[in-house]
């Protein structure tokens, strides 16, 4: 009888999970000109990256900052919208002398709302229906979201467990993703139709 193999584990924390989402977003952004269905995975991955880095930024050294108890006493993670509200709150984000809170532009607020409510929630809780998406709207929405990810991962001044290589990876992916989105066909078509649009 052969001995059991040594156990193998896959381990994530909130930051490595968020970074994995960001890496997947980058992977699928490279596919959008060839596979329109890749947009779904770009949306879901960007959402996961924003949510994960927001939870990490809000958490600090105390996981209770991002947990609430239901009336039945069960612990739940705060929602995407609640995390959004907290990382824009100067008092909630003040944890070190270097702490900074996020100041969202109107464009970013709209993009985050669309990303979460219109797209991610529809995909995650897909009801029987036909869901039509205008592809020309998607690059601009994603471009508004990328600086939010960069801020939450690298610029809050709060506690982070990302290594130097991981931080460099985040910066590289954010900037390369922005370049690819600006180069994609549907973005160039939308610019041609609306020359004043500059995201």
Task: Give the arrangement of secondary structure elements.
Blueprint (H helix, E strand, L loop, with lengths): L13 H16 L8 H22 L7 E3 L5 E3 L2 H8 L2 H4 L12 H19 L13 H17 L9 H20 L1 H9 L6
Antiparallel strand pairs: 1-2
Number of domain modules: 1
Q: Kindly estimate the percentage of residues that lie in beta strands according to DSSP.
A: under 5%
**Radius of gyration, whole Å:** 18 Å
**What is the N-to-C succession of helices and strands?**
HHEEHHHHHH
**What's the rounded overall pLDDT mean?**
89
Number of E strands:
2
Number of helices: 8
Characterize the largest beta sheet: strand count, sense, and whether it forms a barrel: 2 strands, antiparallel
| Helix content class | 55-70%
So what's the overall shape?
Answer: globular
Would you mind describing this structure in some detail?
This protein has 199 residues and is mainly alpha-helical. It has one domain. It is 58% helix and 3% strand. It contains 8 helices and 2 strands. It has a two-stranded antiparallel sheet. The termini are far apart.
Keywords for this structure?
single chain, 199 residues, mainly alpha, 8 helices, 2 strands, 58% helix
Summed up, what is this model?
This protein is mostly helical.
């Amino acid at each position: 009888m052969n001995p059991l193999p040594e156990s193998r584990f896959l381990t994530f924390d909130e930051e490595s999970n968020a970074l994995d989402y960001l890496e997947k977003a980058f992977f699928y952004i490279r596919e959008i000109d060839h596979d329109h269905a890749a947009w779904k995975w770009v949306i879901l991955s960007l959402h996961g990256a924003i949510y994960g880095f927001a939870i990490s930024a809000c958490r600090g050294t105390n996981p209770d900052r991002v947990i609430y108890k239901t009336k039945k006493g069960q612990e739940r993670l705060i929602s995407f919208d609640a995390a959004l509200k907290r990382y824009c709150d100067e008092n909630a984000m003040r944890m070190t002398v270097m702490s900074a809170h996020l100041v969202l532009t109107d464009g970013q607020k709209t993009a985050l709302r669309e990303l979460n409510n219109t797209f991610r929630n529809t995909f995650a809780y897909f009801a029987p229906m036909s869901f039509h998406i205008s592809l020309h709207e998607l690059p601009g929405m994603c471009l508004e979201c990328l600086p939010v990810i960069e801020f939450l991962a690298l610029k809050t001044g709060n506690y982070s467990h990302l290594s130097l290589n991981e931080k460099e990876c985040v910066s590289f992916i954010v900037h390369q993703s922005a370049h690819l989105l600006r180069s994609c066909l549907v973005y160039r078509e939308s610019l041609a139709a609306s020359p004043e649009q500059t995201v």
